[in-house]
Write a structure and sequence with these properties.
The protein has 113 residues and is mainly alpha-helical. Helices cover 65% and strands 11% of the residues. Keywords: Membrane, Transmembrane, Transmembrane helix.
Length: 113
């Protein structure tokens, strides 16, 4: 029973990262319209580095696939670790959180929530 739960959770997490990586190439998920100006500047600065988004996408896809295979799960977790560190470090700042989840999806906010 424990193995099934771990497999399902690993499968869901792996599919989540594969989805995020594919979205960086194909842009099929809608972008929220109410993104604050400071958060938008940060996003635009990241997209100006032309090699960064394809690199993140490839690492997310490969890490997601590796995370779903039990034998390579640790290697997939190591591949995803720098991306998760970047997500956490850009989501929390001394002036407050800039990103949080609402009931209907992802939402940016520059104040404390």
């Amino acid at each position: 029973m424990k193995n099934r739960i771990v497999f399902v959770l690993s499968l869901l997490l792996g599919l989540m990262f594969i989805n995020a990586g594919l979205n960086k190439f194909f842009n099929y998920m809608p972008v929220p319209e109410d993104i604050p100006e400071k958060a938008m500047k940060m996003i635009m600065a990241m997209t100006e580095i032309t090699w960064l988004m394809p690199l993140l996408a490839i690492v997310e896809i490969i890490g997601g696939v590796l995370f779903m295979i039990p034998r390579f799960r640790a290697l997939g977790a190591l591949a995803i670790l720098p991306i998760m560190t970047g997500i956490i470090s850009t989501s929390y700042h001394p002036w407050g959180r800039i990103a949080h989840f609402r009931g209907n999806g992802f939402h940016f906010s520059m104040g404390n929530v």
